[in-house]
Design a protein that fits this description.
With 386 residues, this protein is mostly beta strands. The chain contains no helices and 30 strands. The protein has a seven-stranded antiparallel β-sheet with strand order 15-16-17-18-19-20-21, with no helix packed on it. A five-stranded mixed β-sheet has the order 13-9-8-7-30, with no helix packed on it. The protein is globular, with a radius of gyration of 23 Å. About 17% of the residues have low confidence.
Length: 386
């Protein structure tokens, strides 16, 4: 077959065929030899069917063509092999679930693999609060809010504890296939505003993060100003909206959020281009909260409460995004829905995280993860990566 380009930096990703678009075995930058060969110095992976994808870092459209066989060295000098470049998968990252674990004010965020059920990341930092997980559209970066700041070091041991401060936004790369504690890996602080709390982030495919901002110490269940941050420039603008729990539409053109500007919690839709907003469901008889979009952007799902004053979760509803009558999807004490393109709807419920097929109803509801009161506390704010 064809040879690789000589003296070229390539991005290598080796995937094993499994459920949910594969499992990343290794990912690295490699450099081809002058003769166009490539030596990979890592231990051979377990038996299985693998895809090896190589992408030219300078010109992704050049050199390596889909369905073309290339020659490369694998292992020692005597071992060589041919491989075929397969079409690049738009979703190479495995399906993941993020959620907050613990009571409000003392929670941590965790990321789990939907393939294996294993924990990929846990943010436990001590006597402070890390919560409101949100995925960047690539499913690799986890965005969250935390009030954990470094305290005074222990004079005897030098250990630096984390204590509660104001809430800021952070982003963290979540690893593939292995657990990482919070002191490992790459974490980026996105905001640093003493005296203000930034909470409840949501990321757009267009490179914006919208979040709730309020004076430090404002109860998390109250509304705040909704701001939008341009990730490339770091600049933030006030959208002129009052509310919380924002959620971007899949195409990044609209924003759903909950607001009590009219006295009770209702779900609204904001159009970015026209800067106008309207109620998603004008017939909501109680408090309607925590909206989430369907993967195709045509519908919104949200939770309703027992009444406008009794905020006990009572049901999940689906309403067309363009307007129309809402239908009750399932009744019960369920909250914080999330809708996956894998065909599942997930939500918080009594003692755990629940899910159901998007076409199902009450008989199809199953508890997928159990809360562990003695270890971590309730599971809240679930969000699938896709």
């Amino acid at each position: 077959g064809a040879r690789l380009p000589p003296d070229a930096d390539l991005h290598l990703a080796l995937y094993q065929e499994r459920m949910f678009n594969g499992y990343l075995v290794t990912e690295q930058v490699v450099h081809t030899a002058p003769d166009g060969t490539l030596r990979l110095g890592y231990t051979a992976p377990p038996p299985g069917t693998y895809h090896l994808m190589l992408i030219n870092r300078v010109d992704p459209s050049g050199y390596l063509e889909d369905n073309t066989t290339y020659f490369a060295y694998f292992g020692d000098d005597s071992a060589s092999s041919c491989f075929t470049v397969v079409p690049y998968d738009d979703n190479p990252v495995p399906w993941r679930l993020a959620l907050a674990e613990g009571e409000p004010g003392s929670a941590n965020v965790a990321a789990l693999s939907m393939e294996s059920g294993s924990t990929l990341y846990s943010s436990y930092l001590g006597e402070c609060d890390t919560t409101n997980p949100a995925w960047w559209p690539d499913g690799v970066w986890l965005i969250y809010t935390s009030n954990c700041v470094e305290g005074e070091p222990d004079p005897d041991t030098g250990w630096v504890p984390f204590v509660a401060g104001s809430y800021d936004l952070y982003a963290r790369q979540i690893p593939f296939g292995q657990h990482q504690w919070s002191e490992e890996g790459e974490t980026v602080q996105l905001t640093a505003t003493p005296g203000l709390d930034e909470t409840e982030p949501a990321a757009s495919i267009n490179g914006a993060i919208v979040y709730r901002q309020a004076p430090a110490g404002t109860p998390v269940e109250e509304s705040g100003a909704l701001w939008s941050m341009n990730v490339e420039t770091g600049e933030s603008v006030d959208l002129g909206l009052v509310g919380r729990a924002p959620a971007w539409s899949p195409d990044g053109t609209q924003l759903a959020f909950m607001s009590d500007v009219d006295g009770t919690w209702q779900v609204y839709i904001y159009d970015v281009e026209t800067a106008t907003f309207w109620p998603a469901d004008e017939r909501c008889p109680s408090a309607c909260r925590f909206p989430a979009w369907s993967p195709d952007g045509r519908s919104l799902i949200y939770s309703s409460t027992v009444s406008a004053r009794d905020l006990t979760p009572a049901a999940l509803w689906v309403v067309p995004a363009e307007g129309g009558r809402a239908r009750r999807l399932v009744g019960g004490p369920y909250d914080h829905p999330t809708w996956s393109e894998e065909g599942w709807i997930g939500f918080s419920g009594p003692d755990g995280f629940y899910r159901m097929p998007e076409s199902g109803g009450a008989p199809d509801v199953e508890r997928y993860l159990y809360s562990q009161p003695d270890l971590g506390g309730p599971l809240r704010e679930p969000l699938w990566s896709r």
